[in-house]
Amino acid sequence: MIDYPNYLNKIFYKLLQNNAHIIIVGGYVRDFLLHNNAQASKDIDIEIYNISSYEKLDTLLKEFGKVNSVGKSFGVCKLSLANIDLDFTLPRIDSKVASGHKGFEVEVKKDLDFSEASRRRDFTMNAIGFDVFKKEILDPHNGVKDLEKKILKMVDAKTFVDDPLRVLRAVQFCARFELKMDANLFNLCSQMIKKDMLLELPKERVYGEIKKLLLKSKRPSIGFKLLNKLKATIKIEANLFEVLDALANENITNIKTKEVLMLVLLSYKQDLEQTKKFISKLSNEIKLASRVSALVVNLPLALDLTKKEFSDYEVFKLATLVNIEEIFTLLKVIYGVDNKLYLRAKELGILNTKLPAIIKGRDLISLGLNPSRKFKTILDASYDAQMQGVFQTSSEAKEWLLANHLRLSV
């Protein structure tokens, strides 16, 4: 028995009134069987049999919300309801006709049985269905047994090779669920890599799977060890396995922060240009590259601070360059440093932000200075004095300005 949100019953009832056969399939069923927790997934794939066309399915679903037709060419209606993303799919047969993830010819067949329809799926654990009406598990490819044995098997070797991304999906699933890759699957993935089939994939799709490997695994090293064994171009040094797993188990609640820190671990031994090149191969996201690069560049500086009696000024300076909590997390998992730097930054209130400047441009104007290119020079000197503890309050800052602004100004 698979539990699902009760509010879906109103949709299912409407579909049943139109003689639809409803089967929940894919990750939602898999995750429920693995975790016995229906709330584990925020995406639910639902196959609808006995509905004649996409247009009819679209019409039936419209009363429950705005239907996204982006998947029309694949017979998919997308609907978001109560923070759950629903994909309603008509049974189909996919035929590879060209390279790339869009190079498929799709044939929708309303009377296709579940056993045949599920052959297009990648792995047996993702081809398990739940019949909503009969309340029973459908498992034509023995996915339940494979889950129990903690082994990842493909459904069909002929359809598996149609999408090279499945190689990376296999790797990240093995890491996320700590599965052993079936020998036949391993050999096929290895052959696909040797044939350079992964090169036809857009980097966004490749990075999507790498990101899941990094963010959803307790032991991402499992995935990277597999990539090394498969002789993929995406690989890391074995001495990084332990720190990757350590970081994966840090209590980092912000997903973007965890992504950034994971990428730093994959590139921190490189120089700035190498780091930028590495990130650009994965993603075009400018802010991501900037955050990773800043941490990579300043990691040696932060490490040096932990090896001596550092001053508050040095901590303040570091906070202008990077997020200290982030760089401390890296220092801890890579080098095992103590928490003195972390605690002092916390006491100074700059763990996640730099010291707020007391003197701003408006203060210079209030003293009768006209805005000019030298404003930055004055403000930088003022901020440096503040970090050195020359002044700590607004009144002290103004006194410092009155004593120094003539020398600093035009």
Strand order of the largest sheet: 3-4-5-2-1-8-9
Structural class category: alpha+beta
Averaged pLDDT, please?
91
Rg measurement, Å: 28 Å
Unreliable parts: none
Portion in strands: 5-15%
Task: Report the total helices.
Answer: 20
Give me the count of strands: 11
Global outline = elongated
What's the layout of helices and strands?
Blueprint lengths: L8 H9 L3 E5 L1 H9 L7 E7 L4 H8 L5 E2 L7 E6 L2 E6 L2 E5 L7 E5 L5 H4 L11 E3 L4 E3 L4 H6 L2 E2 L4 H4 L4 H13 L2 E2 L1 H12 L8 H14 L4 H9 L11 H8 L6 H13 L4 H11 L3 H21 L5 H10 L2 H12 L4 H8 L13 H6 L8 H13 L6 H15 L2
Parallel strand pairs: 2-5, 10-11
Antiparallel strand pairs: 1-2, 1-8, 3-4, 4-5, 6-7, 8-9
Helix pairs in contact: 7-9, 7-10, 10-11, 11-12, 11-16, 12-14, 12-16, 13-14, 14-15, 14-16, 19-20
Structure overview:
With 410 residues, this protein is an alpha+beta fold. It is built from 20 helices and eleven strands. The chain has helices at residues 9-17, 27-35, 54-61, 114-117, 143-148, 157-160, 165-177, 183-194, 203-216, 221-229, 241-248, 255-267, 272-282, 286-306, 312-321, 324-335, 340-347, 361-366, 375-387, 394-408; strands at 21-25, 43-49, 67-68, 76-81, 84-89, 92-96, 104-108, 129-131, 136-138, 151-152, 180-181. The strands form three sheets. A seven-stranded mixed beta sheet has the order 3-4-5-2-1-8-9. Strand 8 and strand 9 (136-138) form a beta hairpin. The N and C termini lie far apart (78 Å). The model has no long low-confidence stretch (mean pLDDT 91).
